Amino acid sequence: MSADRYDVIIIGSGAGGGTLAHRLAPSGKRILILERGDYLPRETENWSTEAVFAGERYKARETWHDQEGKPFHPGIHYWVGGNTKMYGAVLLRLRERDFGIVQHADGVSPAWPLSYQDFAPYYTEAERLYHVHGERGSDPTEPPSADPYPHPAVSHEPRIQQLADDLARAGHRPFPLPVGIMLDEARPHDSACIRCATCDGYPCLVQAKADAHVVCVKPALQYPNVSLLTGAYVERIDTSATGREASEIVVRRNGEEERYRADIAVVAAGAINSAALLLRSASWMHPDGLANGSGVVGRHYMCHTNSALIAISRTPNPTRFQKTLGLNDFYYGSDDWEFPLGHIQMLGKTDATMFEGESHHLLPGFAAGKLASHALDFWLTSEDLPRPDNRVAVDRDGGIRLHYTPNNLDAHDRLTRKLRHLLNHLGCEPHLLPQNAYFGKRIPIAGTGHQNGTIRFGHDPANSAFDINCRAHEVDNLYVVDGSFFVSSAAVNPTLTIIANALRVGDHLLERLGARSAVR
Ligand SMILES: Cc1cc2nc3c(=O)[nH]c(=O)nc-3n(C[C@H](O)[C@H](O)[C@H](O)COP(=O)(O)OP(=O)(O)OC[C@H]3O[C@@H](n4cnc5c(N)ncnc54)[C@H](O)[C@@H]3O)c2cc1C
Ligand code: SF4
After folding, report:
1. Any idea what the Cα angle at residue 331 is, between residues 390 and 105, rounded to 5°?
2. pTM for the whole structure
3. Assigned superfamily of 5-41+52-519
4. How much distance in Å is there from the Cα of 398 to the middle of ligand 1?
């Protein structure tokens, strides 16, 4: 065995890749993680809004283009742990119905090749691994589970408790958001998490957020058989002469080309970069991109229709950790609309720096600090449907071109109107929100945080690139475990499903490697 041959090579160390490494680590198999990014530096700037939001300190310095050729800077992060270093750690299961056909006003959300029951045990494991705090049974749309959450729900701070009470009084069913943070409210002196105001969208300085680096990659690297190369950008994957086997992984590192070989290659570079990698790996045997005989690689890109909506309440909102409340009462429809609208959750708390320069035209007479101290911040998500023309393409020079035309917008507009209406009729007159004090912002194409769907899995090689074990139909030793395998995007945050799937595929790989008994 040459020094550069491994049993498994995993490309990318985010939610999918990091989790898979963790699953395979105890097997004793030689595992190499190739990660284009470095370790995210631990520094005071981790928690500085100025540095993180205004300075975009941790965002990739990359330019992509849209379908018109217009350049944009994607909201993407290349670090050990991937985008989970910055995520809000809201970890929701897809709803049971999301795995079937869902009729939307704008078309059909197709069925997955597996059911919720296939994923359920892995969701339970994923919740344990990622320290999810929640309250089973509180979310009326939550799929069935016999297991409680591993940790009690994160408590609401007083202003959010007041919102929850107001919503409940108005007949709604707000629930505590399931969040993956290492907070121990019963023993605060021992809690790794200090419940700060800079979590959603920031890295965690004290490493108490359950991100893929902290909970998966770090412990996996304790095993002598697991190694990680940072700064290792995978340019392409070459195949054997038959085209049936991924034979070499070609890496650009410190300006030099390096080649690595493995019995099994797993792509986990994130839905957009994984698709781009397969497209860049086109060859004589795979003229339209590696494993792309179906033509679906890069297509059906989804990212949800997301909006941030900020309501200015007369009552001050001194909340620090605001991401504790969710509302799914419009997930499947509403009294005046038979189709699904989507999901509502709190955002991380905005602060004065985020309103700097904007406060005057947002609400004349309000200084940024005052605006922030009265803001209640919401995140609204509606399902976008998989359309073949919404896709990742690769320019001749290897650059990424993202074609995306939003769809199912009526559902999202209705969801936004529902929330505004609710906030105006909460029975909370003393702190009624003035009608004009909402700032809604639809997340633009650069908002790739919820990217998924670009290499869908399925039974049929004619309309999927990977089989139900997430193995390429056309390349025997090539797998995918990031968000690209999704068939539909549902309307909840994607990461718990990516993690659960990585655990599921991990079990298949342990079986294939004959290492199942070594792990359990
Ligand atoms: C600000 C923000 C907040 C979010 N909040 C939430 C939330 O609350 N809940 C939720 O469920 N989701 C949230 N998300 C989304 C979540 O981060 C992603 O769903 C998740 O990280 C995707 O996992 P992944 O494995 O598909 O990709 P990633 O985590 O992005 O990992 C991909 C990895 O591959 C590496 N890579 C890419 N290309 C290459 C290459 N060519 N060679 C080598 N390495 C490569 C990248 O550097 C990265 O480390 C949020 C995202 C953002 C940006
Ligand atoms: S709230 Fe907790 S997990 Fe989140 S950044 Fe702060 S200390 Fe870290």
Report:
1. 50
2. 0.97
3. FAD/NAD(P)-binding domain (3.50.50.60)
4. 20
